[in-house]
Fold this protein.
Amino acid sequence: MDELQRELKEMVAQQIEARGVRDARVLEAMRRVPRREFVPETIRENATEDHPLPIGFGQTISQPYIVGLMTELLVLKGDENVLEIGSGSGYQAAVLSLLAKSVHTLEFVPELALTAQKTLENLGYLNVKVHTGDGSLGLSAHAPYNGILVTAACPAPPPPLLEQLAEGGKLVIPAGDRWGQMLQCWERNGKHLSHEDILPVAFVPLRGKFGWKVAQW
Ligand code: SAH
């Protein structure tokens, strides 16, 4: 096993499995995706550390544990159509691409979308499509989604995202303000939408129609 594989194996064992993420497919995906390739070159050595890292434009790549936890909450088996809001570096989308059939990811900042798309293409994650736009509106062209993962904090789950959720589908989303958010897991059963609070988290703000305005956050 080479040094980079060992680094990923340790990251998964010590930060993700040790904190209770059990889905074997999620753990394996996170051992396989080369997290280093998704962070700026100057901080590659820190790529697997136990905290978020800056990726430019005031944005961050989430802490490995949070990626593992959010991914596990979607309970993916392999045949799903998944939507991610907030592509950032593309790392979370790469993890999802190993666990679902198709992944659409939406990013507000065009420069980040472009870099994420290039990284994903170069590494061969071919079932991911990066889109530029306001993810708080969802992406109706490819709906419905069996899983939707939002990686930026919103005041409340944007209605379009709940509408674009397939029967039995799950929406994982940090809801709250700049002082803190609750990670929530929503599920659709017919017309009924229920949710569970998972744990307090700290994300960058979701912008756009159903996100936070700059004056508010
Ligand atoms: N999932 C990313 C981390 C995302 S950080 C990763 O794995 O690296 C949150 C991202 O959400 C930022 O890149 C930010 O630009 C983006 N974002 C904020 N508001 C958005 C919106 N309305 N639509 C799409 N993306 C948005």
